[in-house]
Amino acid sequence: MLIGLFILSEYLFLEPYLVGHIPSGTELGFTLIVIISALSALVLPMNIFRINILKKSKQKMGGGLLGSIVGTVAGACSCGPIGFAVISTFGSVGATATAFLTSYEIPIRLIAIGILAITYFTTIKSLKIECSLKSD
Q1: In what helix (H) or strand (E) does residue 112 lie, and over which residues does it extend?
Q2: Which of 4, 23, 24, 82 shows the smallest number of beta carbons within 10 Å?
Q3: Which of 63, 98, 93 is nearest to 78 (CA)?
Q4: pLDDT at 36
């Protein structure tokens, strides 16, 4: 996810050589992408482990996935090549969505980090309870 977001956000270029570039003024966006990727790398495997433990659980497991999806969309639609593809494919609706995501990409990334952090702590709490119940 990290490498994909770096390529889509134009921090990493593959042609003609492998080159990384962080333009001046985009350090916050770069940092938020790294944080979202790190939290996703923690939350998703923990939730998969939890699903494996509780095959018949009635609790929903979508919080970690929701945060990852929101973070990915915020990172991918920063009006780079993906933004122009959306505009040309979906017309005025795509232009409106791209303008919205470009204007609010930092708050959307912060919301995604918040969702992932909450999911991380609730998953840890539930795993402590579920693992202590399993061992008894």
Answers
A1: helix 105-135
A2: 24
A3: 98
A4: 85
